[in-house]
Specification:
It contains ten helices and 18 strands. The protein is an alpha+beta fold and 340 residues long. The chain folds into two domains: 7-235, P-loop containing nucleotide triphosphate hydrolases (Rossmann fold); 244-338, Beta Barrel (OB fold (Dihydrolipoamide Acetyltransferase, E2P)). The strands form four sheets. It has a six-stranded mixed β-sheet, with helices on both faces. A hairpin with a 3-residue loop joins strand 14 (276-287) and strand 15. The chain starts with 6 loop residues before the first strand and ends with a strand.
Length: 340
């Protein structure tokens, strides 16, 4: 039996004057899943999120939450909460008052003891017990983000909407918070819907990823499905790194992921069973710890990227700029994709 989606878009379009921000999209968000909307700036992902939250209304089509049409329903009456990119904490309030703000707006207002317990539970949920009296400016970026999460989760919404909440954090802290968000979502069982332009963030955190382009949904699938079976070159190029070569037909390209390429000093020292092998010149080398990224040039194929794992370098060696090398790939590594 088909399970009713917790959020559904039915032919949703949103225009601002002559600008089509979202164009005729259909989307079904499953209850309890972690779904990311991924795309570049201006693709319509944040507008989609704002229509779910109730901050924008669709120009046409319908947005439903838990089977109910949300047309005209204001944000404060929807069973969703939103965490913004810059957290939107109240600087004049301490942590406890920031977290309890939404509950204190209810009528009738919960009793003080009930509020205190709810705040304590929410802060324990995000590992900030004991921070009740701190001001937002006394917190680190990661702690501010946890306060914003606690404030959103204290009402136990059906869906938590996350608008690039990790963008302001440094790389190490962002990775830590990605893991925390995943654990929090699994423990609570609440549907999380994340908007991001960071492909690594979307792939590492999500059950499914929705890729958008110019207001339209291009492809929806699990991170592995999008990475291994992209519908076209746009998805392949946006979800991970990819090399594109001229395809066998007009409007097609041959796509090979850089980590699926083999590199060695000569063709003879390449692994056996490769479908293709080419002599190249190394143009650039970037050491990235767990692997080395080479930019190489072939006289016909042009410039492309090879990722060589550290353990492979014991056999293949390390190449310097200007070195000659050989590159090849197995038949299973190449995909023929359309460019539209």
């Amino acid at each position: 039996m088909f399970e009713q989606p917790v959020i559904a878009f039915e032919n949703v379009t949103k225009t601002f004057g002559n600008v089509h921000a979202v164009v005729d999209n259909n989307l079904a968000v499953k209850a309890g899943e972690f779904l990311s909307i991924l795309g570049p700036s201006g693709c319509g992902k944040t507008t989609s999120l704002r229509m779910m939250a109730g901050f924008e209304q669709p120009s046409s089509g319908a947005v439903s939450i838990q089977g109910q049409n949300m047309t005209g329903v204001p944000a404060f009456l929807r069973p969703v909460n939103m965490v913004f990119q810059h957290y939107a904490l109240f600087p004049h309030l301490n942590v406890a008052d920031n977290v309890s703000y939404g509950l204190r707006q209810r009528r009738p207002k919960p009793a003080d003891a009930e509020l205190a317990k709810s705040v304590a539970d929410a802060l324990e949920m995000v590992r900030l017990s004991g921070y009740e009296k701190r001001r937002s400016y006394e917190l680190s970026g990661g702690q501010q983000q946890r306060v914003a999460l606690a404030r959103a989760l204290i009402n136990r919404p059906a869906v938590l909407l996350l608008d690039e909440p990790l963008a302001a954090l440094d790389r190490k802290l962002r990775r830590e918070m990605q893991i925390e968000l995943q654990n929090l979502q699994r423990n609570l069982g609440i549907t999380f819907l994340l908007v991001t332009h960071d492909q690594e963030e979307a792939l590492s955190m999500s059950d499914r990823v929705c890729v958008m382009r110019e207001g339209r949904i291009v492809q929806i699938g699990s991170p592995r499905e999008l990475y291994d079976k992209p519908i076209n070159s746009y998805v392949a190029g946006f979800v991970g790194k990819a090399n594109f070569f001229v395809g066998p037909k007009a409007d097609t390209v041959l796509c090979v992921r850089p980590e699926l390429l083999e590199i060695s000093a000569t063709r003879k020292t390449l692994p056996q069973g490769l479908a293709d092998a080419f002599d190249v010149t190394v143009l650039n080398r970037i050491f990235l710890g767990e692997h080395t990224e080479y930019l190489v040039r072939h006289e016909s194929l042009g410039d492309f990227t090879v990722l060589s794992p550290r353990k492979s370098e014991h056999a293949s060696g390390v190449f310097d700029i200007g070195d000659k090398a050989a590159v090849g790939w197995h038949k299973s590594a190449a995909q023929i994709l359309t460019t539209t």
